[in-house]
Amino acid sequence: MKMLIQRAGERGSADYGWLKPNYYFSFSHYHDPEKVHFGMLRVLNDDYIAGGGAFPPHPHDNMEIVTIPFTGALKHKDNTGGQGVIQAGDIQIMSAGSGITHSEANASATDPVTLFQVWVFPKKRNITPRYDQRKFDINERNDSWQVVVSPREEDNALWINQDARFSLTNLSSGNSLTYENAFKGNGVYLVVIKGSVEVNGTVFNTRDAVGISETDSFEVKASEDSELLAIEVPMNLS
Questions:
Q1: What is the pLDDT of residue 237?
Q2: How far apart are CA 170 and CA 160, in angstroms?
Q3: Residue 181 and residue 165: Cα distance in Å, rounded?
Q4: What's this model's pTM, rounded to 2 decimal places?
Q5: For 126, which of 60, 111, 147, 198 is 20 to 30 Å away at the CA?
Q6: d(Cα 203, Cα 187) in Å, to the nearest integer?
Q7: What torsion do the CA atoms of 185, 99, 22, 181 make, to the nearest 10 degrees?
Q8: Which pLDDT does position 144 carry in this prediction?
Q9: Which pLDDT value is given to residue 72?
């Protein structure tokens, strides 16, 4: 098993006033040649958006973009007619495909929004752009993996144009959970949203992350109540 460790304090960051992002990978003005991608995972931004903050309309193409909110509410609107508001418990996915223009805005003038936004390279290029969102029962992730994004029909999740899978868990202190790959040979980027866990003898705390590869399963043990995100992606960019 190979582990690529990234501590919360090693992330890139910026402060635009209304937007305070932390970058797990090179993005915008932050560039680290050692942190460009993990397999097909290209972007993982940990964003704080102040009340009234908004990204004006901007284009994307050939990227699978997943948004996971933790607090507050985020409005989305795009030029295909896709629109919606997401909040904690919701997951949003957008296939930029052949090209899409969208805007994102804090739905509140006063309360902040916190979220992860994740970009994954697509399996097929130039597909018709698409948008989808769904509310998930957060109780179903207590001490088990809740699959929220996957191309597999049996996972009953939001569809993604890639052999990738996003899973969330709320793991109770003292409990262990095994992650099994959906696709052989994939890697898993595991992020501690909150709490403290141990993987293969190494401790990871809030907002720490580890890229796990060269294995199709691993165990996570929580030393306190913890929330985790597992992003499974192909490791070969070709």
A1: 80
A2: 23
A3: 9
A4: 0.97
A5: 147
A6: 19
A7: -20
A8: 98
A9: 98
CATH class, domain 138-233, is: mainly beta
Reference 191, options 214, 213, 212; nearest CA is 212
Alpha-carbon distance of 34 to 183, in angstroms, equals 26
State the pLDDT at residue 66: 98
**For every residue of the chain, which 3-state class applies, written as one string?**
CEEEEECHHHCEECCCCCEEEEECCCECCECCCCCCCECCEEEEEEEEECCCCEEEEEEECCCEEEEEEEECEEEEEECCCCEEEEECCEEEEEECCCCEEEEEEECCCCCCEEEEEEEECCCCCCCCCEEEEEECCHHHHECCCEEEECCCHHHCCECCCCCCEEEEEEECCCCEEEEECCCCCCEEEEEEEECEEEECCEEEECCCEEEEECCCEEEEEECCCEEEEEEEECCCCC
Rounded CA-CA distance 202/171 in Å is 17
Predicted local distance difference test score (pLDDT) of residue 82: 86
Q: What is the mean pLDDT of each run of 10 residues along the chain (238 residues)?
A: 97 97 96 96 98 95 98 94 93 97 96 98 97 97 98 97 98 98 98 98 98 98 98 90
Tell me which residue has tokens 């507050």.
72
Phi, psi of 216 (to 5 degrees): -105, 5
Domain residues of the chain, as ranges?
Answer: 11-135, 138-233
Q: How much is the pLDDT for 238?
A: 58
